[in-house]
Design a protein that fits this description.
The chain is mostly helical. It has helices at about 5-50, 55-70, 75-85, 90-100. The longest helix is centred in the first third of the chain and has 47 residues, at about 5-50.
Length: about 100
């Protein structure tokens, strides 16, 4: 094994660790962006199911709304979807208020 001068060892530590952290962060961002389309498709399928099955769909909507809000996912889209899916304004407002509690 070849011994490196102290300056070169320090340089290697200062360069490789941040470079490795940037590469790892880039890999995480790539995976999240790649799977965002899949998550969006699953959410759209769930909303279509809720729209087709109003009785059980309202319970599923409250569950989905609660889980996503606990995971700190922005739920503006779900609030708008409640207004579209549950046409009567009172039903949409009631479901959003019930899920927000």
């Amino acid at each position: 094994m070849r011994l490196l001068p102290a300056d070169l060892r320090g340089f290697r530590q200062r360069v490789w660790r941040p470079a490795l952290a940037v590469l790892a962060g880039g890999a995480v961002v790539f995976v999240l962006v790649h799977h965002a389309a899949t998550a969006n498709a699953l959410l759209m399928r769930a909303l279509e199911y809720i729209d087709a099955h109003k009785a059980i769909g309202s319970v599923l909507f409250v569950f989905l709304f609660t889980i996503l809000s606990c995971l700190l996912v922005p739920i503006t889209f779900l609030t708008i979807a409640a207004g579209v899916i549950f046409q009567p304004l009172a039903a949409a407002v009631g479901l959003v208020l019930l899920a927000s509690q």
